[in-house]
Amino acid sequence: MRLANIDGRTALRLADGYLDVEAASDGRFGPDPQGLFADWEAFTHWAGEYLRADPAGRAAPTTPVAGAPFGPPVPRPAQVFAVGLNYRDHVAESGLQIPTEPAVFTKFPSSLTGHEQAVTLPEGLVDWEAELVLVIGRHCHRATRETAWSHVAGVTVGQDLSERRLQLTGPAPQFSLAKSYPGFAPTGPELVTVDELADPDDLELGCMLEDGEVLQKSRTSNMIFDVRELVVRLSAVCPLLPGDLVFTGTPAGVGGARNPQKFLAPGDTLVTWIEGVGTLRNPMLAP
Ligand code: ZN
């Protein structure tokens, strides 16, 4: 199934629109998209039954989508993990060694935004990073490779926007802070459950400027630490909580590694896609 946050309300995708989950479930679930993770299994069970009984959603009002603002599908995660240097070609363009442990940082949740939401560029050098984002559905501590995917509710498209000057100056890198300006974590448009994907370990992903220049294009099968390994290694330390996010790293093609370097400018619109998951669009505004 595919879920969106439309104007703060949980909406379930139908063939030609979205179902308002609170109305369709008589208030049992929704409207808050984060609330679904209090009992993700009960919600998916209800939604599956509902779609079987009423696939067109005729019994309940659909949410008007035209012009409605999309919020992040997971608006208030307790924890947001992010992984740097997780694609070989991106490690190479960064001039670094292949890591033997994932390079983990956080994007503070106040940086989250949604599809079609504008991002106000701060002073500095703002770079793009197209990423597959995992949404945790089931509490997870010390997962094994065999069970890792079963803790993942679904995935969404993400951008790990990064201000490179703050990130790389000072006595030690400032990954978490430099990647957490307001709007620096666009996600969406939808949370897509894992069963919707033919092979969740091999999805094309990339981003482009809307005027046509493709900036990044790769496949998630090129990750150094794949999704299973990330869930294993993160949950070996931190329990992963329902509704947490994991940004899984970006492939080659970031602006800071180009010669000459290239960064986002006011008036650019960044379009980010993942095969079978969706396309996320974010215009960039002047400071
Ligand atoms: Zn990143």
Overview of the molecule:
This protein is an alpha+beta fold. The protein is 15% helix and 31% strand. It has two domains: 2-57, no CATH class; 72-285, Alpha-Beta Complex (Fumarylacetoacetate hydrolase, domain 2), CATH 3.90.850. It contains six helices and 19 strands. Strands 1, 2, 3, 4, 5, 6, 7, 8, 11, 12, 14 and 17 form a twelve-stranded mixed sheet that branches. A five-stranded mixed sheet has the order 9-19-18-15-16, with no helix packed on it. Strands 10-13 form a two-stranded antiparallel ribbon. Strand 18 (269-274) and strand 19 (278-285) form a beta hairpin. The termini are far apart. It binds zinc ion (ZN). Zinc ion binds next to strand 6.
> Roughly what is the average pLDDT, rounded to an integer?
95
Strand content: 25-35%
Task: Describe the sheet with the most strands.
Answer: 12 strands, mixed
Query: CATH superfamily of the largest domain, please?
Result: Fumarylacetoacetase-like, C-terminal domain
Report the count of strand segments. 19
CATH architecture of the largest domain: Alpha-Beta Complex
CATH class of the largest domain reads Alpha Beta
Number of domains: 2
Rounded Rg: 18 Å
**CA(first)-CA(last) distance:** 38 Å
User: Counting H and I runs of at least 4 residues, what is the number of helices?
Assistant: 6
| Bound small molecules, deduplicated | zinc ion
CATH topology group of the largest domain: Fumarylacetoacetate hydrolase, domain 2
Q: Unreliable runs, pLDDT <50, ≥5 residues?
A: none
SSE succession = EEEHHEEEHEEEEEEEHHEEEHEEE
Helix content: 10-25%
Class inferred from helices and paired strands: alpha+beta
